[in-house]
Amino acid sequence: MKKRILLTSQTEDNIKALQNYFNKNIKQDRPDIVLEYMSFYKYKNFKLMHYIIRASQMVKNYSAVVSDYTTSVFKKTKNGVYMSHGYGTKSTPGKNEVDNKKMMDIYKNIRTRIKNVVTLSERDSTYYLRSTELDKVAPANYMPLGLPRNDMLFDQEYITTCREKFDLKHNTKGKKILVFCPTWRGYEIEKAFPITQDDWTQFDKFMGENNWEMIYRPHYLERLVDDKIFDNMKNIITMSFDEEMSTQSILAVSDMLLTDYSSIYVDYLVLNRPICFLPYDSVQYEEKRGLAIDFDKEEDTPGPKLTKIEDLIDYMKNSDNEKYIAIRQVAQKNFYHYLDGNSCERVWNLILNLVDKK
User: Fold this and answer.
1) Which pLDDT value is given to residue 60?
2) Amino acid 114: pLDDT
3) N or C end: fewer C-beta atoms under 10 angstroms in the chain?
4) Strands (E), the chain
5) Can you name the residues that pair with 219 across neighbouring β-strands?
6) Phi and psi for 220 in degrees, rounded to 5?
7) What count of other Cβ atoms lies within 10 Å of the Cβ of residue 224?
8) Is pLDDT above 90 for 186?
9) What distance in Å separates the CA atoms of residue 139 and residue 144, rounded to the nearest whole number?
């Protein structure tokens, strides 16, 4: 009897990694499994197509549904497996969501429909899908199996190939790469961004003189910095999701990460490369969203906190600081239960155990 499994995603990353692993390691030995894969990112501007595909899925029954968002198709299976886009840094639900009935209903649906939540570590169970109201609903089964997309960052061949392709396309061979990845806010920011266009011009000049290049990776829902200001700069590249969906490939080519409250730095810890933070609206972010970390604790945020462009330049000159190398290693243990490249295998073991259960 055929067993139909749906992998569905709003972007790709974790779900795409699971599909690739299945095709390479499982498909040949499991002819009884029919695997469906769907990423809705390419239909983000075509809502009608989204509804048509969703309707076609809702008339089927699935042995398992694996998703990175709160799809209604979870109703079509007893075996729902859910994993978030990222873990480690943010209160979920956020402070600005606990009084929002629509958002809380979404979170309640996750808790009631899905028994298996794949996370990075045991600490994720202390804040993720947790609130006084949510804890009255059915308990989730937190499983710290790791995020499938991060397996790529343990693969040296993948890292080398990504860098070779990037160097060929952007003529960056021999240069160091800084990637700037701010998180999504979803609110009107009260404070002005601390780096001005003149600052970026100064920074572009510094990079040109010191063999650096920067990738600006805006969040796919929001642009913290208008990338038009980079149009005339020689050493800054904007790389949106439309150009490159895989954030892991961008992390793989970089030598340093600049971010704020984004959980992307938790992924980046796998590489144990320098990280720095620009938390310029931290008070407002804590009030609006809320953090699951103590931003002042170095084991939670293993890198310097910057306030101006000169701080960033100074750190780039001294990024091999042994202090932060040691702190990043502590942070790895803080955020990861498994620090290896076997998350896809563990998640697939979970899925297959669920669908094979008599």
Assistant:
1) 93
2) 84
3) C
4) 3-9, 33-39, 64-67, 80-83, 116-118, 141-143, 176-181, 212-216, 236-238, 256-259, 275-277
5) 222
6) -70, -15
7) 18
8) no
9) 16
